[in-house]
Amino acid sequence: MSFRKVNIIVLVLAVVLFLLVLHHNFLGLSSLLRNEVSDSGIVGFQPIDFVPNVPQQAVDGRQEEIPVVIAASEDRLGGAIAAINSIQHNTRSNVMFYIVTLNGTADHLRSWLSGSTLKTIRYKIVNFDTKLLEGKVKEDPDQGESIKPLTFARFYLPILVPSAKKAIYMDDDVIVQGDILALYNTPLKPGHAAAFSEDCDSASTKVVIRGAGNQYNYIGYLDYKKERIRKLSMKASTCSFNPGVFVANLTEWKKQNITNQLEKWMKLNVEEGLYSRTLAGSTTTPPLLIVFYQQHSTIDPMWNVRHLGSSAGKRYSPQFVKAAKLLHWNGHFKPWGRTASYSDVWEKWYIPDPTGKFSLIRRHMEISI
């Protein structure tokens, strides 16, 4: 009888041990699934961060999700944080932020978000694979700036946001003062894969410095001396557009193979030098101008009031700045830099880095003095 009891006890212990091992393995597998990078495409995904808490402004789960893609490089991380904060606080919509970074930035970004009032936002961190750009970009000593890989993230929207039919892309040097839902609802004409703000008729252009030259026309971005450009029969005087803020119809984007078209012109530029030698803006603009020539819709100009970073001086009246739906500090004078126009407007949305790694340059200078 005692022998049988021993067997039963041994059997019970074995079952308990088996269940403990099974439980441990299950937890290990769950952890693995949460933390492993898993993507068969050309862009590698960092661990995806879902924040289950409901934001302060209650979100209706039945609302359509609004994907907002924004790049966040280490040296400009404060810009992305301010942009995200301004969007979140000015809408009750169901926004999902797709924050595109390089390998070393994800942990810093995650710490910043979780250690601030932005811990309740819904977001995914996506790692951008720089191998994607091999053979498609080259350093130009005449431009004086090194290639910034994340500026090309906007070319790969369908891969960054694979399940969405529509998305918003915006640079990190913006502040949103309107409801992002209004921008998302921008109507796109049939057959158009994107809507941009044109330079010639924008609200910004009307109060910009006179004598801006060709920076608002195609000739400011493309070398019309090159035969390949001339063969496209694009008028050199055609108004350019700013790609720092746009709405994309991703269904149409995929249908037209926009990403492949953009890559084609990137490669051709490396081989033949098709961009203007006095490039009026970012190297991401010329291929977009070619691919979307007379094939894009327009967004409300007040959703991309730009040139705030073109100089340290103030171009606009306080009333105009207040009325703008989106302020864009494109140019060299960034609001987190040494000097910038309307930095007080931007700083209202900036959240100090709880890790202390990022600090405003001008504030650092003031403390030093």
From TrEMBL:
Give the similarity note: Belongs to the glycosyltransferase 8 family.
Localization of this protein: Membrane
* Predominant place of localization: membrane
What are the record keywords, sorted? Glycoprotein, Glycosyltransferase, Membrane, Signal-anchor, Transferase, Transmembrane, Transmembrane helix
Q: SUPFAM superfamilies, from UniProt?
A: Nucleotide-diphospho-sugar transferases
Q: Which domain of life is it from?
A: Eukaryota
Answer yes or no on keyword Transferase: yes
Lineage of origin: Eukaryota, Metazoa, Chordata, Craniata, Vertebrata
Q: What Gene3D superfamilies does the record point to?
A: Spore Coat Polysaccharide Biosynthesis Protein SpsA, Chain A
What membrane topology is given? Single-pass type II membrane protein
One Gene Ontology cellular component term attached to this UniProt record is:
membrane
What are this entry's molecular-function GO terms?
UDP-glycosyltransferase activity
| Protein's name according to its UniProt entry | Glycosyltransferase 8 domain-containing protein 1
Q: Which organism is it from?
A: Callorhinus ursinus (Northern fur seal)
Q: Which InterPro entries match?
A: Glyco_trans_8, Glycosyltrans_8_dom-fam, Nucleotide-diphossugar_trans
